[in-house]
Amino acid sequence: MRIGEIAALVGVTSRAVRHYHHIGLLPEPARQANGYRAYTVREAVLLARIRRLTEIGLSLDEVRDVLADDAGRELGEVLAELDADLARQEREIQERRQVLAALLEAPLTSDGPLSPALAALLDHAPATTSPAAAKDREHLALLDAAGDGAGAELFAALRPLAENPGVLALYERLDALEGAGADDPRIAPLAAELAAAVPDEVLAVIPEGEPSATGLGRVLLDDYPPAQRAVVRRVMEELAERVRRRGTA
């Protein structure tokens, strides 16, 4: 095989192959009389392994260390490992296509695509012009995108909350705090009512710990002005405490 052929076979560029030669990661094969490099199956296997290791996040120096540890392995063993890796990639592609099919079947909205679970939750939420409700929707979409499907149970558990007509009044009270300070006397009672409105079923799918201490929790809190942030932080703390009490009950 020539350089273009081995590059196409493995799925890299000829430039990448030359770079691997240059840094000594991929031994350069002997040239034929016509001056072209002649690559063998073993070099193709090695190049495929380099590509796989870099795709999973290893630096080229780390790849070099792995390859050094693999020196002397039988070609059949390496080929079997690569075959298993391709089978894994096929499964992952199939799973991603299944998720994509579900997204295509769900309603397409301006903040979509949304997972079927989140789309179903929002479909049951009453229409409102509340800025706080709109912000909640954005946060759910962020959780949906960052959770890799892990939020499906949470969205299902939130259904009773979305269908609760009293929640709109709570959103309006939260809207009214937009320009208030973090010491506003309305903060504590509103936080208590918001936390109390969260169904017990939600607690079962909330990880034990302090949500406001997580990366996502901090991002959500930073999205609110002072008084609203104080309310949301109190709600997070109360829910975390309910989860702890539930775990020790």
Automatic annotation (TrEMBL):
The alphabetized UniProt keywords are: Coiled coil, DNA-binding
- The organism's place on the tree of life at top rank: Bacteria
Q: What CDD domains does UniProt report for this protein, alphabetically?
A: HTH_MerR-like
**Where in this chain does the record put each HTH merR-type domain?**
1-69
Annotated coiled-coil positions are 79-106
SUPFAM superfamilies, A to Z: Putative DNA-binding domain
Which InterPro entries does this UniProt record tie to the protein? Answer: DNA-bd_dom_put_sf, MerR-type_HTH_dom, MerR_fam
Asked if the Swiss-Prot or TrEMBL record annotates the protein with the keyword Repressor, the reply is no
User: What's the protein called, per UniProt?
Assistant: Transcriptional regulator, MerR family
**Which species?**
Streptomyces globisporus
